[in-house]
Amino acid sequence: MKQTTLLTVFFLLLFTSITSLSAQTLNESSGTGAHINITSGDFNTAFGDSAGFSLTSGSQTTFLGYQAGRSNTTSEFIAIGYQAGYSNTTGFDNLFIGWQAGFSNINGGDNTFIGAESGEFNTTGYDNTFVGEESGANNTTGYENVFIGEDAGFSNTTGYKNVFVGNEAGISSGTGYRNTGVGDEALSDVDEGWSNSAFGESAGIDVGAGIFNTMLGAGSGVATEHADYNTFVGAAAGWDNNRTNSTSNANRNTFIGTANGSSNREGEDNVGLGAFASFGSSGLPFDNFRSQDLLTGSRNNLSRTTFIGTFADAGNNDVTLVGYSTRVDGQYGIAIGTNTDVLSSGSIGLGYNTTIASGSNNSVGIGREVDIDNQEAVAVGSNSIAQANGGIAIGHQATVDGTGNTTTFTGNNMAIGYEAAATNNNSIAIGATSSASGENAMAIGQAATAPNDNTLVLGGVTNPVSVGIGTDTPSAFASMELSGNNKGLLVNRLTDTEITALESNLTAAQKGLVLYDSTNDVFQVWDGTQWLSAINTDDQELSLNGSNLGITNSSNTVDLSTINTDNQALSLNNNMLSITNDSNPVDLSPLTADLETRVAALENATGSASSGGMTPLLFNYQSVIRDTDGNPIKNDAVDVRIAVREDGVTGTVVYNEEHSLTSSEYGVLSLQVGGGTLLNGDFSTINWGEHEYYLEISLDSAQTGTFTTLSTTQLLSVPYALHARSADYITGTMGSTGSRAAKSSQNTEIQELKTQVKQLQAQMQLLIDKKN
Length: 772
Fold this sequence. Notes:
This protein has 772 residues and is of the alpha/beta class. Among the domains are: 493-528, no CATH class; 619-724, Sandwich (Immunoglobulin-like). Helices cover 12% and strands 26% of the residues. The chain has a 26-stranded parallel beta sheet, with helices on one face.
């Protein structure tokens, strides 16, 4: 039917042009009332009843159809179709083709309306182009619009500078302006909106009063109404944006890719790039844009997200995702890499299949298949694992967790190196395959292991190391080498009380332990059962047995025969000490001039003082008392009974006394044997030189009169010291004045003897060094 109509119009135009050449005024008309009022107009053509009825002087008009251009009075106007341009009076340069096309136009000019009822109600609108049935039908004063397609721009009234191309494109545009909609139903409901662009079937179909939106792709931004400044590119991109018709939300979103951001409703300031990337758990695309039960994504109100990659899944506000099937559920999270999952707040995951579990807030995972299950943790390296709060794992398969913990696991451990593992609170493992499973333990070095709490292991059994302090090249035969000319080695300094407390925890396993006794200013060495002074020269003498040089209180001797090949020997002639084949003897007379006299005087003074009662017949005893659980009994009043047994632990009790004491803050008891409350016997008559004596200690901790024997041990050095006071060869007496004099000079004499022995030792060493 439309083809027949067009052919008819064509032949009528052709006939008009041919016949007009022969007309005097070059006007042609046919039909009742056609050109009935024309007087001076030229080049006019009217075919149809009342066509060009009102034209008088207008020129270059063409009216074809019943009442086409009936009211026209101006020039340059073409109206073809039933009542096309019916009401036009002064409008010029118009082209109306179709049933009632431009019917109501009065003085609008430069319009092109093609199609039944196209521009039907236009009155003064100008520079419009409407092509298609009812295209721009309701336009009245709108101008510079282009509507192409059935019902394109149908409801536009005063809107201007709009472009709608497609069936029902901009059909409800109303007063909106500067909009561009291309595609079936594109921008069909942009009633008040302006400066929107939509390309594709149903693109921006419901934009309403929105402004500055761009939708490109079938179904892109299909539900967006009122929202502004959005950009959706791709089929169904931004599909559900502002479906709630909020007038204040769902703005400034950019979604690029098929179904990208399709689940967003009121979220703002989001950026998405990639097919099927959206909010919540992403699913497969839907193939019917009007089906809302298959929308990709399960969340619809997120803001400030950035997700890039196919199936990227943004699950919270303020997240960033880059990569295929990445997912971030924790706010402020970042995920970069294929299948990377960040499910906790403030965390960052970077790498293929890296996972940061829910609740692992503020953690960082970098590497292939990294696994983090706790908060504030860091894991860097392929297959590294952080399952400890505050843990740090760096290296391939490095691990921090709580598998080595036996109580409460809090974390804060660190593993650095290939397969390094730190598995207890505050533990640190540094080095390939190193392991720290003790609490507060640290293992440093390849394969180093620290299983015990509060320990630091360097190198370990597998790869023992040499530590250098102040040197770049420590000896390979030393565990530690110190170097420097302004520093020394400062060891632990403990008082007597502290040493006693420490001893209660020591066993044979700690044999060789060294510390400095700050009370007595001496190094102490633990021999497995007791403390021994590391430096002890008191009461020592040099002795020469053949060619073996020895010193008292030591079983070690020096064989001097190997020092020189000259078969040398030491000899003492009067006070001259010499060695074979050496002409430089050592004069010992300054050291020995009055030695015998002073020793005899010291012995006589000691004997006389004792006989006079000035030297006390006492010796000290000290011990730590404990309860049945092994805990020291501190600051408590107790009774102690002392018994001296003769010739065995069950021998006759020759002396018995009792002390009432109060233990110290460390549980230490201090007393003087011989100074307690006498129960039986006489301490002064004990013959220490002829028998073995044993000291029995009994305790009454509740002071009830019931004593418990704690120990019975043999007395060694003290009895011999007491016996020395009555040695047979010491004779003579001293008065009280002599006794006090002897006592006051005793310490001086002893110190002089010690000094002389040390000097003798030094002279011997010089002589030996000289011969070497």
